[in-house]
Every structure is written in C-alpha cells, then in structure tokens.
Amino acid sequence: MRSFTEESNFFASVDPEELAERFGTPLYVYNESILRDRMRSVMGMITKYPYTVNYSMKANSNLALLKIAKEEGLNCDAMSEGELRLLQLAGFPAERIFFVPNNVSDEEMKFAADSGIMVSLDSLDQLDRYGTLFPGTECCVRINPGIGAGHHKKVITAGKHTKFAVALDDVETVHEIAKKHDLKIVGLNQHVGSLFMQIDPYVAAVKSILDVALEFPDLKLIDFGGGIGTPYHKLTGEEAFPMQDLHDALEPVLDEFVSAYGYAPLFKSEPGRYCVAESAVILGRVYARKSNAGVRYLGTDVGMNVLARPSLYDSWHDIEILRNGKSITTGETEEITVTGNICESGDVLAKDRTLPVAKDGDLICVLDAGAYGYSMAYTYNTRVRPAEVLLSTNGSVRLIRRRETFEDLIALQCDTTEF
Ligand code: LLP
Hints:
ten-stranded mixed β-sheet; 28% helix; binds ligand LLP; TIM Barrel; 2 domains; alpha/beta; Lyase, Ornithine Decarboxylase, Chain A, domain 1; 13 helices; single chain; 19 strands
C-alpha cells in the first residue's frame, strides 16, 4: 500500500499523533511547501504574454494561506463582500482583486466599486443594475462559452444548464446595455466548472471566449477561469494535471488571437482547487468499529460537517490509517465504510473502501482536503468546526485557526422583540 504522506514527507519532522493530541481531532493540517509549489506551477500556465493567476479563495479562505498566495504574487477573485473583506485584511490592494459575483445586491456592488475593485457582471440584469449605479465607469462581463466541464453536475458552471454568466446569444445586448449607461467593457471572464483532469475542455473554452473577445475592442483583461483538477486517486497512481501540456496547447491559440486582436490584453486564470487541495489533510480519530448486515463500518470524528464533499458529490478522498504516528502500508486490509459522527445516514466519508485494518484509537488521514474542505465545513448537530494548523517551510507548526468553541456557536443567538 502506498502512503502519500510518507512519499511526500508531508509531516516532515512533526509527529501527526502529537498534532492530534495537542490540537485535538478532527484537525486540518496544511503543508506550506506543497501549497507554494502548486501556486508556482499554475503561474507557468501562460508564459509568453502578460498573465496573472487569480487564486479563487472560495476553495480556502484562511488568512494565513491568503497571505502566502499574496507573497507568491497571485491575485485573487472573490464572490461576496465577505471574501472581499478577507482579501483586504490579507493585504491585497484593490488592483489585485477581481470581484466575480452572482446575483448580488446594489450594496455589495457598491462595496466593491467604492473600494476600487474591478467587478464582473454575470447577467444582463446585473449589468444594467451596475450601469445605473455607476454610469460612465469600467467593468467586466462574465460570458458562458457554451462549454461546461466538471466532476459533478452540481459544479458545472457553463453550457446549457447553469445559472451563471451571459449566454453567447446575449452578447449583442451586452453592447446595448453598456451603451445605454456609457459603460466601458474592459474585461471578459468565464469559468466552465470545477475539476477536470484533461486539458481539452479548458482549451476549447479559451477558444470560445477569445472568439467573443474579438467583438469587444479595447479589452484590458481576459480571464479563462479555474477548474483545473487535482489527482484525488493518487494512492492508486493517478497523475497530476498536465500543466505543461496546457501551457503548450494554449500558446498557439493565444498567438492566433493576439495577431487578430492587435495586442495582448492581460490573460488570467482563476484556479482554487489546483492551488490548495493537495496541501492539506484531515486527521481524525477512530472511535468505533461495527458490522451491520455484512457491511463493516469504521466510526470516526470526520463527519460530513468537517468535509462536506463526499456527502454532497460522492467525492472520493484517499485515506491512510496512521498508528503511532506512522502510516500503515503493510499487513492485512479489509473493505470498510468510513463514517463520521453526524446524525444522518448520508454521513459517509468513504464507502466500501479497501484500507489497512484500523482499530479503535488509530488516526485516519484524509488526503487532498485543502480545497472546499474547511471553507464548506459547518456546525450541524452543534458540532464545532476544527482547528487548522500550518506546517511551515521553516519547520514550525503554526495554529492558523483555533477550534471553534461552544460559546462561538451560540454567540449569535438572542431573544429580542423588534416588532
Ligand atoms: N472561478 C469561479 C467563478 C468559480 O465559481 C470557481 C469555483 C472557481 C473560479 C474555482 O474553481 P476551481 O479551480 O477550484 O475548480 N465545492 C465544489 C467546487 C465548487 C466550485 C465553485 N466555483 C467541490 O468541492 O468540488
């Protein structure tokens, strides 16, 4: 049996058992060098033309990680006022933030515009609303390139069945609305969906938005979106996304566009998962084993509230079993269903998984948990959200978010008569 944590020296000189004892489980553990490595890799997607990466912070919005993204020279995209405010707290200046919201209020648009942040509008109505608020200004428009991709229908954000972006058929109306409010469309963006391991859908979508771009003179930026996948089946040999192939495939496409357009606007990508997924694991504790109707169950504290992806999308996360701080790679295996401690039958982390035989008190280590892990964690069953620690490149262990407390959970509850 392979062990990613051993092969990548994930825990370096730190004993995961000590981490679990000191900070409690479940616990999100981040590895700074893996994080920086992936961020650098995506910076190499386009090299010939002006290019920046917008880290999509919805994947993980911990301030410590945002600051690392900033140090690495990444920009960020944000989806809400809350995300914008976090980026400001992390020290991102307005020109390094791109607001790409969906169905937002005037207040949220005003917050961004008043902060000097570029906004992209993702429907004709939102564009009209923005134009009414800020006539004569610059903005961007999110285009649906007609091509969607992703690991589950819930995360495909372009093509026919989606609430996102302006359909290709409506591009003419974009020009009319812009004219009405004297808006200058200075950028186009798209996002086809999340998690694909082949380059083809991305390249096809790039071609599609570049065709649309020809209808917009004077663009300052074109953002090709995120969605670049990470190998969630790495223990059985799944390879990394072929970033170099994507680079090589995009170059002639961009060459052709630039020569037709007359100049190269700033090209952008918007990856979330690719940057952070592999940089984190969740450590959880085994608290029970049982069999029911011939099915074995492993009972742990990594519930659907800690990692929502398996229950939402049937997502696969590789799992290692750790005993005395070491990943078990030899000995007997068994087929077992790994569950959490939440009062739902859907609280299943991994179904019928072949794993080393685990016993009460062992640790489970859930791989590739850095993206859409903590950022989608919740407090159902009045369970607190876990702590997060960062294994720094200098060997130190930094607590970057404390475990929530019961007091945190009830802090918003009140009983006041307002009307
Ligand atoms: N840009 C926009 C406009 C997006 O909506 C998203 C993700 C991204 C960029 C980044 O996508 P990424 O590179 O991370 O695939 N919770 C789901 C994924 C939802 C993605 C939503 N939008 C999951 O856990 O798989």
